[in-house]
Amino acid sequence: MLLVIFAVMMLPMLLMGNRQRKMMREQQERLSQLEIGDEVRTHSGFYGLIVDQYDDVVILETEDGSQMKWARNAISQKVEEPAAADASDDLDADDTGGDAGASHEPSGTDRDVPGVTGSADRDR
Hints:
This protein is α+β, with helices and mostly antiparallel strands. The protein is built from 3 helices and 5 strands.
């Protein structure tokens, strides 16, 4: 009887551990796929462009051109390209089937959001 109670208590812990390991493995895979030129966001909310990378360290460039060294594990995610985000917004607007005269414009533009500018903006 004691063994059954122990097994029932341990089963959720084992399942949570497997789920956590899977999420960590996926995050490590995403980090390993980062390349020079990718715009990323760190866990602390810093946006930067990868200009150099080593085994476990990346050099991120800010919008003003300064460079900082960050641990690769501090990177939360790769920032989506604006074109991909615009395409998904267009699909969402088409799927809603709302009024033809209604405006589906976002409240702000990409220029309103601080972050790293693309290479075309840096050449100005």
